[in-house]
Amino acid sequence: MQHSRDVRTAMAQIELDGINRIFRLGDSEVHALRDVSLRIEAGDYVSVMGPSGSGKSTLLNLLGLLDRPDGGNYHLEGRDVTTLSADEQAAVRSARIGFVFQSFHLVPRLTAAENIGLPLMLAGLAATERSARIAQALRAFGLEGRAHHRPEELSGGQRQRVAIARATIMRPAVLLADEPTGNLDRSTGHEVTALLEALNTAGTTLIVVTHDPAMGERAHRWLRMEDGAIAQDLRRHELPA
Amino acid sequence: MSPTDTLRFATRAATAYPLRTALMTLAMSIGVAAVVVLTALGDGARRYVVGEFAALGAQLLIVLPGRTETGGVNPGSFVTSTPRELTNADAAALLRLPLVQRVAPITVGNTEVAAAGRLREVMVVGTSTDFLELRGMRMAHGSFLPREDFERASALAVLGDAIRAELFGHEPAVGRMIRVGDTRLRVIGTLAPGGQGLGMTTDELVLVPVATAQAMFNTNGLFRILVETTRRDALPAAQRQLEELLRARRDGELDVTVITQDAVLGTFDRILGALTLGVAGIAAISLAVAGILVMNVMLVAVTQRTAEIGLLKALGASTASIRAAFLTEAALLSVAGALTGFALGHLGAWGVRLTWPMLPAWPPDWAVIAALGTALGTGIAFGVLPARRAAALDPVQALARR
User: Fold this and answer.
1) What is the pLDDT of residues B111-168, one digit of tens each?
2) Class for domain A3-238, per CATH?
3) Which residues of A touch B308 (CB under 8 A)?
């Protein structure tokens, strides 16, 4: 978490250059991203807002290496990741990127502890080391009493806490959150937001896609997308008031 | 993802849908059980028949009157159209051959037996003292037919157990007089019950000296002659000696047939072996069907768990890990089915043995190995396609599925 903040002076943690993404639906083409160029420094807190269909989710998927651009370059921590094979990208996702989804995406048959441990298991860590790190994560996210509960036995807030614990258990450099509070009530939403911001304070780059202006305004940097392009890019200290 | 983790993950996935897994296991196990039970039946029948023949003695040659041959028509065919009979003199001559140990001439006929005011229809076998050993029979009381010249028509009889019980009940039979046909005979012995051979029980027989039977049925011919050789490996040589001797005794024409036990045995063994194989093949079709079922179930599983697969990809799972997880799950279903079927099959074979104790219904090893192998093979082979489909899913689209 610490290392990327001090080293990269020449290159930002995330650099997008002229990214294009086009979806073909039958005969028609949808230009989901048009010539997007973007630099995000390590440890930044960025919110991506904009109307539905403006390309927010596509941008997030590209940043998370779940999707490939049709044109342009993506450098993550100085490495060109657009040309990597699917399995190499999976390895990068495993080590450097965490995802938090609106619908939590917990595996229903696995307990909270097992869900949190999934990335460790996929990375091939030994079981003993896994259990130590899972226990630590359960403590950190206030889930000690819920370790052996299945997702259906957890409240919405607890589910999202499990999801965030899972997203951060590999200590990723970048945390990507797609409407993380979209399925939560207001107070639980605040709780989850506070958790994410605490992770950001500890050094993780946080990129949040949201419809919720209240949440979006909390970020240090605001991106506003329209028609697949970045229409507005503001920093909090640049704001008038 | 380590192999242990893959196995555990797949096990959790399989047990998360108990009904699906149970039905799948059932389908696979029916296939395996069918192969095990049917081959046990087939092989049991084969062993039963082989055992029946072995009861006759492994060093046995059987001489039958007449000869079946394929060949062209020659003048001789018209002269000697009726084969000469086998006689007691032939049997006596065979006994003098060096490789021959025992000879039992046999004449068979149906007549009635009467004693103590009771009368019944009976099969009478005229034979000699060696018959007892040749057929591996045991005496209950008294003695068997005495060793004497084949031509001597002694008025003696040995009763099968059922005949003895019907004529004399609980009274002793040895020493009593009976009437067989028009001849009065003295009972000198009774056979132990349960003598078996070629589906014919000796319980229902009356055994008399061969000449007595020939007089009774007014014939000189023999039904056949049973010959036991000194050693098992002397069979081919003895068969040649027999044929030479009989040819010489019949003016150079061999109008008898000498068959060996082995030839008959080998034929039955082959026929029933092929039958077992055929039955196993039919049962194996159900295994292929079960394999397709595994594929179907796994394809449904991939569809059901699309979002989960997308998540695993987002969390950094490699395509190989996902493929391995789904393939392991398919393999687990097959293994569970195969093992359950193996147990069910053995249960079924045990039931068959219980129902028909004479049938040694044990599934042959090759069938068990083939059934388990086919079950695992088809399960895994048909698991490849769903596993590949899972691994090839696009993560963005997979995640969007609920």
Assistant:
1) 999 988 888 999 999 999 998 888 878 898 999 999 989 989 999 999 998 899 889 8
2) alpha beta
3) 105, 107
